[in-house]
Amino acid sequence: MKKNILVTGGAGYIGSILVPELLKLGHKVTVVDNFMFSQTSLNHCCSHPNFKIINCDIRHEKLITPHYLSSEVIIPLAGYVGAPLCNKDMTGAQTVNHDAIMFMLDAVKDDQIVLMPTTNSAYGSGNKDNFCDEKSPLNPISKYALDKVAVEKKLMERNNSISFRLATVFGMSPKMRIDLLVNDFVYRALKDGFIVLYESHFKRNYIHVKDVASVFIHALNNFEIMKGEIFNVGLSDANLSKLELCERIKLQIKNFIIMDAPMAKDPDQRNYIVSNKKIESTGWRPKHTLDDGIFELMKGYKMLVNSKYGNV
């Protein structure tokens, strides 16, 4: 059944992959985005009759509320994503990641569907075996993870919600993010030829951005069996340490030098092995491997050169 879907932050890293796919399936899609990065990632959607764009900040309650109330499905992607950005602008992080989402959850009606991306960084360092499933206790450390935990708690008080605890996302997107771990490491391998790791033994899970888009579509198609639940979303064969990730990159970029030094700490202190069995039990499977993503990034970085502060 075709839906009237609102995607906040729809011009961002995940949204610019998800929105075109929703349109292909015949859904009516409204994107709310404040275009804080001056991105043009949805230009190719403008000719589609079912596509609508609203240039608006989700903190503008008066403007955003009618769009919430007129939608059958809400996918709130707008946010200050990741610990570094949240630490840089803690006021922005608080008002966007926490306050604006809490307002949305109060504003929407109970029969509306909310599909929410959260984060598995909230697991912190897991249990003594570093193993985490959806029933594992949460140990959020960063501002980003703390806000996501608070939002998820309120989200799951609703009848028609699903929370996706996303692994670290990677892959090319029209609105690219080079700062994500896999994307960053591949960029360093290509452009610098070396990397210096800290806490190189820390493990985390990974997922391709296209598979993140596919899990939202899977939830739309299987909502009745998935509603009211929390799901980890990641690659079950990609619970890797930073060092192991670099070694996988080195298989494709041979002249990549890897050095280990105790120089800093991960702001999330994430170190865990994540189970994705619950989402897989619903019939969803990721289609893009970590090696696929590394190969894709190698091609993509031939087009992306960070020359803002350079002379070549």
Determine Rg (CA atoms, Å): 19 Å
User: How many beta-strand segments?
Assistant: 14
Q: What name goes with the CATH superfamily of the domain at 4-168 and 206-236 and 275-286?
A: NAD(P)-binding Rossmann-like Domain
Question: What structural class is derived from the secondary structure elements?
Answer: alpha/beta
Number of helical runs? 11
Query: Could you spell the SSE succession in H and E letters?
Result: EHEEHEHHEEHEEHEEHHEEHEEHH
Q: What gross morphology would you assign? A: globular
How many angstroms separate the termini?
51 Å
CATH architecture of the domain at 4-168 and 206-236 and 275-286: 3-Layer(aba) Sandwich
- The largest beta-sheet arranges its strands as 3-2-1-4-5-7-11
Parts with pLDDT < 50 across at least 5 consecutive residues: none
Report strand %: 15-25%
**Named CATH topology of the domain at 4-168 and 206-236 and 275-286:** Rossmann fold
What's this, in brief?
With 312 residues, the protein is an alpha/beta fold. 35% of the residues lie in helices and 20% in strands.
Structure, described:
The protein is α/β, with parallel strands linked by helices and 312 residues long. The protein has 11 helices and 14 strands. The strands form 4 sheets. A 7-stranded parallel sheet has the order 3-2-1-4-5-7-11, with helices on both faces. Helix 1 (15-24) links the parallel strand 1 (4-8) and strand 2 (28-33).
Topology:
Layout: E1 4-8, H1 15-24, E2 28-33, E3 51-55, H2 61-69, E4 73-76, H3 83-88, H4 90-107, E5 113-119, E6 131-132, H5 143-155, E7 161-166, E8 168-170, H6 181-191, E9 194-197, E10 203-208, H7 209-221, H8 223-226, E11 229-233, E12 239-241, H9 242-250, E13 257-260, E14 273-274, H10 277-280, H11 290-300
Parallel strand pairs: 1-2, 1-4, 2-3, 4-5, 5-7, 6-14, 7-11, 8-10, 9-13
Antiparallel strand pairs: 10-12
Helix pairs in contact: 1-7, 2-4, 4-5, 6-9
